[in-house]
Here is the input.
Amino acid sequence: MNLSIDRERLVSEVEALAKISEAEPPVVTRIVFTQADLRARAWVIARCKEAGLEVRQDAVGNIFARWEGSDSAAAAVGTGSHIDAIPNAGKYDGVVGVLGGLESIRALKQAGFHPKRSIELIIFTSEEPTRFGVGCLGSRMLSGALSAESAARLCDANGEVLDEVRLKAGSVGDLESVKLAAGHYHAFVELHIEQGPVLEREGMPLGIVERIAAPASANILIEGAGGHAGGVLMPERRDALCAAAELVLEVERAARATGAPDTVATVGICQVFPGAVNSIPSRVHLTLDLRDTDLARRDLVMAKIARASKAISKKRSVSMGTELINADAPADCAPEVVQTLTDSCREHKLRCLPMVSRAYHDALFVSQIAPMGMLFVPCLHGYSHRPDEYAAPDDMARGALVLAEALARLSR
Ligand code: GLV
Ligand code: MN
Ligand code: MN
Here is the structure.
């Protein structure tokens, strides 16, 4: 089969999608179900239809663009990723898997390939946790890891609940219908930028993921006592921000203390109330993001942070409440999909590196209902979740080429 990826089209589509953003270029911000996200969805759907794919959406807005196989009753082969983007993001996170996946399908069509199994490109809703607090919303629901009932109640910072927001955004149907049965997909492959420096450092064009690290996240609410910055003397203070500062450093210490490079912890949000120069902070909201490839080690770090929080709360006479948002298990990629990806690299004489994904992806949840694999392409300096994120055209095209080969092999 003569597979040929249209690199220029892929690059120009990545650029075009990046312009649909809530922020000025080069920044991409596309929060789920905002106007920018809705416009981006419409734009991608139009490209999928132009490519001859049948498009449907489920009740939470996951988009499925299907190329019907000759055996339409057979379990389909899935690929895809997300197009939502965190505040102050770049152009490539998620997008390479969506537009690269579309380009793979076009290349297969162009080569005259006819799949036996249908091939579906999936654009998952809200892989990013920005709006509703939990990452991989669409794939969590699709796999059944998040129930319709819990999802419906998820609330954004303005108090808008997911069940209303998704209806306003045009999604229809019962959230119960989002869950897919095990066996719905024969296999699933997600193409993504690495979001780390390993491929670049090793001079490797492609990475084949063998395992996705286990993510956990929590909201931490600290309540102390506010008051006048001049009037309240230091011994009387119950400053919520000072307590938060101690906890943030404990989070860092606990992650470093494992000595394992795979343990990573981040406090990415710190909201201070009332937030006035001359007012003692009475309340602080922190978020905790903790990940590890080793589930037991991650949970030990979580327990250590909980103990530190108790001690700080006692010492400073503040209350600290922790609300766990998610604590997911790691996922192993399916050996047969890993093998198919390895063979596909070999077929095109491309070297590849077996690796771990420390970022989470929709594939983490799809693995609960289908054999899953992931293909990584390098990104400059490993930068991601920042506006200067960059993947080179040749790297994206190589990723799409190997993906096309793998989709062909899996759908025969
Ligand atoms: C995905 O965006 C992640 O935070 O790993
Ligand atoms: Mn991301
Ligand atoms: Mn992503």
Summary: The radius of gyration is 22 Å. The longest helix spans residues 295-316.
